[in-house]
Amino acid sequence: MAQLRYLFGRLVKAIMVLLAVTVLSFGLIRAAPGDPATVLAGEQGSVDPEFIEQVRARYGLDRPIQEQLFKYVAGVARLDFGDSYQHNRPVIELIGERLPATLILTMTAFLLALAGGLIMGVTAAKHVGKWPDGVITIAALLFFALPLFWVGLMAILLFSVQLGWLPAFGMNTIGVEMSPIGRTLDVAQHLVLPAATLGLLYLATYTRMTRASVLEVMDLDFVRTARAKGLEEKRIWRRHILKNALLPIITLASLQAGHLVGGAVLTETVFAWPGIGRLAFDALLQRDYNLLLAIFIIASAFVVFFNLVADLVYSLADPRIEVAA
Amino acid sequence: MTDFARRFLRSRSGMIGLILLLTLVLMAIFADLLFPGDPWRMAGRPNLPPFSKGFLFGTDQLGRDVAAGIMHGARMSLMIGFASSVVAIGVGVLVGAVAGYSSGIVDDLLMRLTEFFQTIPSFMLAIVLVAIFSPTLGSIVAAIAVVSWPPIARLVRAEFLTLRQRDFVKAAQVGGHSQSNIILHQILPNALSPVIVMASLMVASAILIESGLSFLGLGDRNYITWGFMIGAGRTMIRHAWWLSAIPGLAIFVTVLALNLFGQGLSDVLNPRLSRSNRT
Amino acid sequence: MTNEPILSIRSLDISLPKGADRPFAVKDLNLELRRNEILCVVGESGSGKSLLATAIMGLLPPGVRIAGGEINFDGTPFASLSDAQYRKIRGARISMVFQEPMTALNPVLTVREQLDEVLVAHGVTRSSDRQKRILELLKATGLPDPETLQHSYPFRLSGGQRQRVMIAMALALEPDVVIADEPTTALDVTTQKQILELLREIQQRLHIAVLFITHDFGVVAEIADRVAVMQFGNLVEEGPAETVLNAPKHPYTRKLVAAVRGLSDTTATDVQAGGEPILSIRHATKTFVTGGSGFISTKRRRVEALKNISVDIGRGETLGLVGESGSGKSTLGQAVVQLLELDSGEIRFHDKPLQAMSRQERAKIRPKIQIVFQDPYASLNPRHKIRRALTETQMIHGTPRAEALERAEQMLDLVGLDRGALDRFPHEFSGGQRQRIGIARALVMQPELIVADEAVSALDVSIQTQVLALLADIRNRLNLSMLFITHDLRVAAQVCDRIAVMRRGEIVELGEADAVLATPRHAYTQQLCDSMPGIAWFSNETGQDPLLQSCKAEGI
Predict the structure, then answer these.
(1) Where does the protein end up (chain A) (predicted)?
(2) pLDDT per residue over B64-81, tens digit each?
């Protein structure tokens, strides 16, 4: 019961955040330089004042600002972000086409980073001060300092241009007939470099967090109690240290998972991955602000969604949550 | 202070970071002396590989000297990284301090605001802000600051909440010290160590954000930056790999230096936190 | 009692890592623990007593190691055992109870799971056997409703209950030896008494040997068969409890015993009650609401810290405010120094209500009511030199620099510190010295009333005596009034004229200190008095103790 109330509270909060993001987006569209109607009309090839008025009426730009805001928010609530000025199609269609690619990329990167980070972090903590710890700590430090888009370029240079092992661009090999299995393998091949690139920074983060968390728990009193009970080391690690140390990491990680969607812009741009990050880059080049901000709202929604997931995971996994709530 | 310096000298990562940083700062300062003139101008034959005579890092497709770009770019990276961090820390410390000291409704509102900014995907927000307010030095610094201040605010608030409960702060209250006196002289100095450590890491992440923005073409076109150089060299990657490789290395070394420096500061300022890092 | 040793320690050296304040935590220690006895190892902080316990368990922290000598268990030296053999003994034949019940249990495992794994680790394979044993153990340690409680997580239990779970865990395999490291220090005094009784009862029923580590001679008097006293890593005295407590031979033991017993020797003022009160509290009420923040609130918890409290403090009088944790005593102290606002009721200083005063009037009053805090490590700003700590507040209230400095120097003299202290930072002083600085900081303001909030609770007993004597001396010399807040009746008895006993936000008894202690009227006061560890020993021969006289003569 307490947990349900806790989650309900979180849900309300999530909706408030999304509302605020939408209002912010609306404000930013309006803050963009130039009267949108003039820009629109200009792009459609006419600066005739009458035509501008027409455009203004068509997009509701002649209404009072509060009404426009209300309409925008109401639209977003129904997933209606209006049309893309550039593509002349509903924004939500464009995003819907591109979203699966982004999700495949980010979730692969996330899972790789989390698994690798947990393993590396625990290994480092277990051998704290010895060579495996040194190697892992330095590796994490180096990964942390790498600009991702550059890593992507260098990976293309090495694995595609020099060695020719993996494809450099896109998600599919175009113009070749393939069986479903073959197509899946083809996507997987295309996925390797971008997913590894995107995962690298998070791998470094999770490694550091895991190492710190394990080291902290190792020093706690109840671990000493477990030793005093005569338990085997293996059991102490599994039931006492890891159970307590990994819980916050998994929560923190799922909090960050949502940020990956928005963080994929650079990686998708470098690898020409047909996701919403790449779409955002195109929208940016073409000053298609309606599309850009819709992507921005969707990316925020992912963060909010994963925050909820993290809360859920946490409230199920940690018995103390009722007290914290 | 001498004690601080002595302990910092003993931190290996801190010293490596400091030396690298000083080198970068010197590069930035003497860029005009070593590579006078506009780094955008054509200086030699196009597409010279690194270690060509007179062009240590080669030239690009327009014959611009890559080494000159690196030196002048150091100036921009450090400047933007530093400026945006100063703004972010200013805002973060202010918000965190007010929230942590006032508690109640003010604290609640400020923390909702902070959480809100932490929820929005930060790089995307930076892109949107710079795109809409057009890429100038000012808008880039502001955009990076806008996405960077929340962690500082949370940290400062947490420190304030703990410190406010400390007896020496209560003693000052019982003594009738004014609120501003208590915040400035009793609490803030004791809350600064972790902020300083976080600040050095923040400069690093600001530099990464800036390079990402210029890579996407959202840099100020009046100045050459490392991110722009990588973006420009990207299409040439099959023929002239050094055009993107070398500026990327420069970013990597800078960010690494700042991280190492931050690690060193952390070892000295928060011995409790880094205890488990040592053996 | 059989006198056969189960555990014997021979010329044990425990070395500390480089850079510690001394090379050895324990030096050349010889000690025997016999079957069927409780041996108390007593010492102040830094005596090495806790490291001795962890050394026996083979759980020394990294960097600390056994540098010489040996520990024999039932005739076998631990050093000759493999890790696996040692582990078989640990938890089964020797087990341990730790100080902090709040942190010693794993927060994400239930009580049952934590008990179960000891049994599994030591070869109880049938799960029905284990379940039966778990219920037995929970019952034997006096926990209510074992069937339900076994499925609880530790955060659901009170401190005393958690400590019972720890004890159940230690007893799971009927060990020969239980090592208890300050097992009651973190508990309230009434809970402490229950846990001590439980340990004693179990020890006698199962005839086990208990090595009981403590800093408290009261606890020793309550529970020990034999006593070993440690100082700076050395064993300075060992013998039957009777002898060590009543006729200690070593000067250090004598000093410690005198420090504890000296507390029953009253140093209260001879101020007559009545007269004009300097401070009167009327109908003070304060309720704290915790949890549930933000616009969607979750579970809120209300704690009534003060329920309609009324009490006076006379000029030159010391009023003791005694209670266990959560009684509201500190809340009242904070209200008096205006660190928090009351919900209702008033506090009158010189018959003027503080609440009704203007800002300026309040600012003028503030220096007159000063406070001395509990934790000497948190009460001084680590970044300010003592000079600033002692003069800044004075100057804020308009005292010229030179005069403020002069007063700071005088007060340092008064609290027995060198004037050179002014140019040093807090971390350069010991706990006792910092507490003196804290007192000086209060005194430079020339207060009329001092609130001492657990002012000696964090100090070692020998330092405690000195600081208490200092407070009493200053109070008498400067004719100060004092609100003395403490959880320790013994300490209160020493310095207070009157005592108010608080429980759950109410004053349950108020009276002359001697009367409250000797003939408590309220059942709770009675319970507090009875729970005082070593009460029988203290009241045995108060005042006229020849030892006490001799110690006084020596000026200890």
Answers:
(1) Cell membrane
(2) 777 888 888 888 889 999
